[in-house]
Design goal:
This protein has 7 helices and 3 strands. The protein is mainly alpha-helical. A 3-stranded antiparallel beta sheet has the order 1-2-3. Strand 1 and strand 2 form a beta hairpin. Helix 1 packs antiparallel against helix 7, helix 4 runs parallel beside helix 7 and helix 5 packs antiparallel against helix 7. The radius of gyration is 19 Å and the shape is elongated. The protein starts with 23 loop residues before the first strand and ends in a 35-residue tail after the last helix.
């Protein structure tokens, strides 16, 4: 079971061997029908878990003296305040169990080249992306049959629109423009997490419109992705990375 808290890859179970994507795609004229399988769910889980571990390891390398437990504590607090739009600062943690950790991690981040309180903005961005991916993972089909996803139906034009909606080009430009050098590195790794994880959904759409899923081309800026299940015609999940 994947852990929705983030930065828990060292504690959660992961599929030992890589899993091949196994969606079923039927094309009849201008209409594509996509059915996701439990193998696709495992592939999404692997992508999320592996990216989670890589980002955590990268942050730990940038922040000497900061531990995985420190980051997990801060991420948990960020997750509890995910719906608040204001940027978090050291003061935001004042009445929480993470107060001392927040001050210490912020000091380590500033010493490593981050702007004051920027580490919390980075964690907010990561947590928002992670939460959106977990939301999709929950509604994917499972081996035990707890949740069965209905086929998703697109015309080829709708598939192209969905691909534009899933593009990450320009999505984090504002955050990058305000970021320090280590902050930019962290944002770029978060973008890679998003791109690697959403490939599970882009691949059948690319195949639907005649593109090779192995060599996808980013079709342009966008901020929506199709939601498996639910409304089975061109459904979407609102923008990643927003907080």
């Amino acid at each position: 079971m994947i852990d929705s808290g983030g930065f828990s890859g060292h504690k959660q179970s992961m599929t030992a061997a890589p899993v091949a994507q196994a969606y079923e795609l039927t094309v009849e004229g201008d209409v594509c029908t996509i059915t996701y399988t439990p193998a696709d769910t495992l592939l999404l889980e692997q992508a999320i878990n592996e990216s989670d571990e890589q980002i955590a390891s990268s942050l730990l390398a940038d922040l000497p003296g900061v531990s995985m437990d420190d980051l997990s504590l801060l991420v948990n607090h960020v997750g509890q305040n995910l719906l608040f739009s204001e940027d978090l600062t050291v003061a935001s943690f004042a009445d929480s169990p993470a107060a001392e950790t927040a001050a210490r991690v912020n000091a380590a981040a500033v010493a490593a080249g981050f702007h004051e309180n920027e580490i919390f903005t980075s964690l907010q961005l990561l947590r928002g992306v992670f939460f959106a991916l977990i939301f999709m993972w929950v509604y994917m089909p499972s081996e035990d049959g707890d949740y069965v996803v209905e086929p998703v139906v697109y015309t080829k034009d709708e598939a192209r629109e969905a691909l534009v909606g899933m593009a990450t080009t320009g999505l984090f430009d504002e955050a990058i423009s305000d970021a320090s050098e280590p902050g930019v590195r962290h944002i770029e790794r978060t973008m890679e997490m998003l791109e690697n994880s959403t490939m599970i959904f882009r691949a059948p759409l690319l195949e639907c419109v005649g593109e090779d899923p192995a060599t996808p081309v980013d079709p342009g800026p966008g901020d929506e992705v199709p939601t498996p299940g639910g409304d089975n015609r061109g459904g979407s999940l609102s923008s990643f990375g927003s907080s």
